[in-house]
Amino acid sequence: MTASVDILNEARRLGFSHCGVARAEIPEEEASRLRSWLDRKYHATMEWMVRSAGKRGNPSLVLPGVRSVIAVAMNYYTPAEHLLEQGKISRYAWGDDYHRVMARPLGELQEWLAERNPGERFLAYADTGPMMDKVWAERAGIGWTGKHTNVITRELGSWVFLGEILTTLELEPGQPAADRCGSCTLCVDACPAGAIVEPYVVDSGRCISYLTIEHRGDLPAGVSLDGWLFGCDVCQDVCPWNRKFARPTSEESFSPREGFLSPALEEWQGMSPQEFEHRFAGSAIRRAKRSGFMRNIRALLGKEG
What we know:
Blueprint: H1 4-13, E1 18-23, H2 28-39, H3 47-51, H4 53-56, E2 68-75, E3 88-89, H5 98-116, E4 122-125, H6 133-139, E5 144-145, E6 151-152, E7 160-167, H7 186-190, E8 196-198, E9 201-202, H8 208-213, E10 228-230, H9 234-237, H10 240-245, H11 265-268, H12 273-279, H13 289-300
Parallel strand pairs: 3-10
Antiparallel strand pairs: 1-2, 2-7, 4-7, 5-6, 8-9
C-alpha cells in the first residue's frame, strides 16, 4: 500500500505546493452550513449548486466505496500589477485556465497511484466536480477557510488552486488545519460590494466575482464593478497572510497573457464571436461567455443599456 508520505513527495514532484490526506467521512457540519447558505439564497442564480448539494455533502455518492480524499493545492501567485484601474482581471485568470493546467499533474498523480495500488479506484477533480474543495483542503491540513471564504495556507497565503483525488484506498489522514484569522476583519471591511455579509459568509448576489463571471443577463441596477472586468481580488489583496507570505509560482502557464494587465476595453468591445474565441482560447475568461464579457465592458465604459 502506498504511504501518505510517498504521495506527498510525488505530488510535490509534479508541481503541487501542498498535499494532504483526509478521511472520506460525511462532513456533517460543513454540509449543514452549505444547506443554510443555499436556504438564504446566497448562491444567487447558481442553481447547479442546489442540484449538486447532496453529492457535495457525501463523497460516497461521488465515488462509491471511497475511503480517503487526497487534497492538493498549486501556487498561482504572479508578482505583477494591474496597469489600469478600469478593466482589471482577477489574478487567477491572468494566465491559462487553471482547470486545464491542474488536470495534467492530477492525472499523472492518479496514474501513479493506480499503478501502485491495483484493484483500487481513483477519481480526480480540479474544481470540476461536486466536491467541497475547501472543506477537504482544510480537513487534509492544507489550510483553513478564511473570513473571505478562500483557503489560506501558512506558507503561501490564499493564492492557491485546489483539487483532490477520491480513492477507495485507505490512507493515514493528516491533521485538519487550524483557523488563524484571529480577530482580523480586513477582508470583510475592504470588500467593495459588501458581499462578505458576515465572517465566512459571502452573498454571491453582491459579489463582483460572481457578477462578472457567473451571472447571466443584465447586471443589477446601480451595481458598481469597482473597475473590475473579470473577477475581483480585493479581499485577497488586503489579507495579511498574502502580503507577508505570497511568493511567485514556478508554473509558467499562470504568467499574465499579453494585454491582460492593461485591457484595451474600447478595442475588445468590438470583438466578433470568432475573435473572442480565438483571443481567449485556453483562458478562464471564457467562463463568462462573450455576452457576459461584453456586458462587463459596456458597464465599465458607461455604455450599459
